[in-house]
Recover the amino acids of this structure.
């Protein structure tokens, strides 16, 4: 084949590929390759066409910008075309741009100085948001039409959809706006909005998006605008289209005028003089890129003076007065070389992608998380695949998509090992137990677990690293590497073995000398009397963080009680839900864990054990217990009615016959209660919970209830105005749990008033009487002082 023939074949291939990618990107909002890869293909085609101008055709993707409108939407002709921007990747590209601008404006700019530098041009600097371009048409200040860019001349009518974007004004504010004003800008999704959307899509079994741009595009171009309305879209304006009327004569002047009329503009908008200041801006934003609440793929520089913009004009479909200075791409293609499995602290066996190293957003990436096997299945990823890797913000690199048309014939499925790669124990799939309405449904979980527990080196290492960490047992001087060495050399098999270590054993460890060994021994010794909360946290119970550990310690105040507590009893604790309660209960029911805890109890002297926390002791009622049994058709109100009818006695309730029940409840719940207690297991469970409440001294009939011991006992509080973070009901509940009475009106006897925005006469009265007033933030802080969180 001749050179020209080879070029022609390659050109044809590139054109058909690019057409396909264009279609996927612009019409389907489902690109199959990252932008950076698209750019490379596009540039390859451009270069080939430059070498072989005879092969250029009018329908080549290089001759066309953007894409067709999706036919389902109406068409909108753009009076003023919506153009794209030229790109600068390196500093020199930007300097070349500035030089071309100055050359183009030679007649306007003051003559050069002695060094031939010439005067510098003023540029507006804005982030280049990664979303999709939108045109908004305002007539007499009213939003009358919204459109996508489409191919730049014709877009899609998305008027209904843009009206659902919260920060797009439907009406311009103030005065002085032109009678016809077309505002242009980017519709985008913040990182947080994107994460939220994907999480809820995942939960509802819907389609997730690879990145915020796709999510924004997919959400805005919905045929059903009620879906768009639910998506966290935002708008940022960066320019104008057609105008009938007066506007300022600089770009920044116009943006500021638009801002005054209610248009959102970028907070990062700045002016820069000359290429150097532009580059400063680029570097500054580049450093803050990961911390911005939204994704950007570069910055845009525009000649600020509009007369000069007109003078410079356009080349092909790009303005000569503006340029996009791009950042290193946050998505790249690479090959999945292997999937390895890592074992974590709780034995979870998680897949990790080993990649052909690739630079993503300026950092070399060789590994990426695959989360769990559900994620592997969702991605449909196989070993050998070409995958899109995304590294955005400070998040760990992720595999977001497989490029299916590049799958090699010998691609291999990802399989979970049957045996733990570290200890060889059996790997089993966890079960997902959902509990609701008193019923348990069991399904297969996404997580696989090595059953080896602390016999598994990986789990033992992680468990000990957690055990000694600062917020847990706080044993200073024992780094991760030393823990690994201790485990690898068989010197410790359980956290309790730490307390048997000798000076001779430690001094042999890498990096240890005489002094550091003595220090470590002293640190271990010093940790022998942990507070209960620290000890509980140090155990590494799944889903039990520092806060929950504190709650457990403060409320139950003894390891013995915590070990025995039934899940339902645990749910009396503030902020402990049923799932966590079951995790805690299962942890302590496990015989292996029991052995480890016994060993620890022998070497430790756990502090802070004693009387049950007062607020906890007072938190039970028969109605609450009935509620916790989750009997179908019996809600909190039904539970209260039953408790009252049967004199707060579970015994009487259990002895009730259908007629007794029917006197208080309607037929359906009465049947439900009868059927529920007809099952021996349910009766036993109710009795066991009650017995434990008695045993712990927190039964509603217990003598030991120390209500007067509550911190706010005897106080009267009033809530007024609207509370924004904590609802009034919850605030009331929390205050009552601390022993306070919550009243509806302010008097001299009122201890304290919590006043939110909109508070009126009650606040005035409080001020008049000199009653203490807290705003919501102060109130939450006060609650925190009593160990009550906002959740
Ligand atoms: S100005 C003639 N400013 O980038 C100038 N564009 O490749 C037209 N974009 O389609 C665009 N942020 O979707 C401009 N601050 C900004 C921008 C921006 C993002 C997008 C826009 C446009 C593409 C240009």
């Amino acid at each position: 084949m001749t050179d020209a023939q080879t070029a022609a074949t390659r050109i044809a291939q590139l054109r058909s590929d690019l057409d396909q990618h264009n279609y996927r990107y612009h019409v389907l909002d489902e690109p199959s390759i990252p932008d950076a890869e698209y750019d490379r293909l596009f540039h390859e085609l451009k270069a080939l066409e430059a070498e072989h101008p005879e092969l250029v055709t009018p329908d080549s993707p290089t001759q066309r910008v953007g894409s067709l409108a999706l036919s389902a939407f109406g068409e909108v002709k753009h009076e003023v075309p919506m153009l794209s921007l030229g790109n600068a990747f390196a500093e020199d590209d930007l300097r070349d741009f500035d030089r071309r601008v100055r050359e183009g404006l030679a007649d306007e700019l003051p003559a050069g100085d002695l060094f031939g530098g010439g005067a510098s041009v003023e540029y507006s600097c804005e982030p280049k948001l990664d979303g999709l371009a939108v045109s908004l048409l305002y007539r007499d200040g009213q939003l009358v039409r919204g459109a996508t860019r489409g191919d730049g001349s014709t877009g899609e009518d998305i008027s209904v959809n843009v009206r659902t974007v919260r920060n797009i004004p439907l009406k311009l504010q103030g005065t002085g706006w032109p009678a016809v004003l077309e505002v242009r800008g980017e519709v985008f999704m913040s990182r947080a909005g994107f994460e939220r959307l994907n999480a809820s899509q995942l939960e509802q079994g819907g389609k997730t998006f690879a990145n915020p741009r796709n999510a924004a595009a997919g959400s805005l171009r919905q045929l059903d605008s009620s879906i768009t309305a639910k998506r966290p879209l935002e708008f940022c304006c960066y320019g104008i289209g057609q105008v009938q009327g007066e506007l300022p004569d600089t770009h920044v002047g116009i943006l500021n005028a638009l801002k005054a009329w209610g248009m959102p503009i970028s907070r990062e908008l700045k002016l820069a003089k000359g290429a150097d200041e532009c580059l400063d801006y680029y570097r500054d934003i580049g450093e803050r890129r990961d911390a911005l609440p939204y994704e950007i793929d570069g910055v845009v520089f525009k000649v600020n003076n509009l007369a000069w913009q007109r003078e410079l004009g356009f080349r092909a479909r790009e303005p000569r007065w503006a340029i996009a200075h791009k950042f290193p791409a946050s998505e790249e293609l690479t090959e999945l070389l292997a999937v390895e499995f890592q074992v974590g602290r709780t034995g979870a066996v998680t897949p990790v992608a080993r990649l052909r190293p690739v630079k993503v957003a300026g950092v070399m990436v060789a590994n990426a998380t695959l989360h769990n096997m559900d994620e592997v299945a969702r991605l449909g990823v196989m070993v050998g695949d070409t995958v899109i890797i995304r590294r955005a913000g400070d998040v760990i690199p992720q595999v977001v998509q497989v490029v299916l048309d590049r799958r090699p014939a010998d691609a291999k499925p990802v399989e979970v090992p049957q045996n733990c790669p570290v200890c060889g124990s059996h790997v089993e799939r966890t079960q997902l137990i959902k509990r609701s309405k008193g019923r348990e449904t069991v399904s297969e979980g996404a997580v696989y677990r090595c059953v080896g527990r602390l016999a598994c080196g990986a789990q033992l290492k992680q468990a000990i690293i957690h055990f000694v960490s600062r917020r847990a047992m706080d044993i200073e001087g024992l780094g991760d590497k030393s823990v690994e060495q201790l485990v690898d050399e068989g010197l410790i098999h359980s956290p309790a073995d730490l307390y048997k270590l000798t000076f001779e054993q430690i001094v042999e460890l890498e990096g240890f000398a005489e002094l550091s060994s003595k220090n470590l021994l002293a640190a271990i010794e010093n940790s022998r009397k942990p507070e209960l909360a620290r000890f509980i946290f140090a155990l590494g119970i799944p889903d039990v963080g520092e806060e929950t550990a504190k709650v457990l310690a403060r409320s139950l105040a003894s390891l013995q009680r915590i070990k025995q507590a039934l899940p339902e009893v645990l749910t009396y604790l503030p902020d402990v839900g049923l799932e966590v309660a079951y995790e805690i209960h299962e942890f302590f029911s496990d015989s292996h864990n029991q052995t480890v805890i016994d060993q620890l109890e022998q070497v430790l002297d756990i502090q802070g054990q004693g009387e049950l926390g007062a607020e906890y002791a007072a938190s039970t009622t028969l109605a609450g217990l009935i509620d916790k049994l989750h009997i179908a058709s019996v809600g909190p109100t039904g539970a209260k009615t039953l408790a009252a009818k049967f004199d707060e006695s579970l015994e009487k309730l259990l002895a009730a016959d259908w007629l007794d029940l029917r006197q208080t409840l309607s037929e359906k719940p009465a049947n439900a209660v009868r059927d529920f207690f007809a099952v021996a297991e349910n009766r036993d469970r109710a009795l066991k919970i009650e017995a434990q409440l008695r045993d712990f001294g927190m039964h509603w009939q217990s003598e030991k209830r120390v209500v007067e011991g509550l911190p706010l006992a005897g106080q009267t509080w009033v809530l007024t105005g609207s509370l924004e973070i904590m609802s009034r009901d919850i605030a009331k509940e929390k205050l009552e749990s601390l022993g306070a009475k919550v009243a509806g009106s302010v008097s001299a006897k009122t201890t304290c008033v919590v006043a939110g925005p909109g508070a009126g006469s009650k606040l005035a009265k409080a001020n008049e009487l000199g009653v203490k007033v807290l705003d919501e933030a102060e109130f939450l802080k006060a609650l925190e002082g009593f160990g009550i969180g906002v959740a």
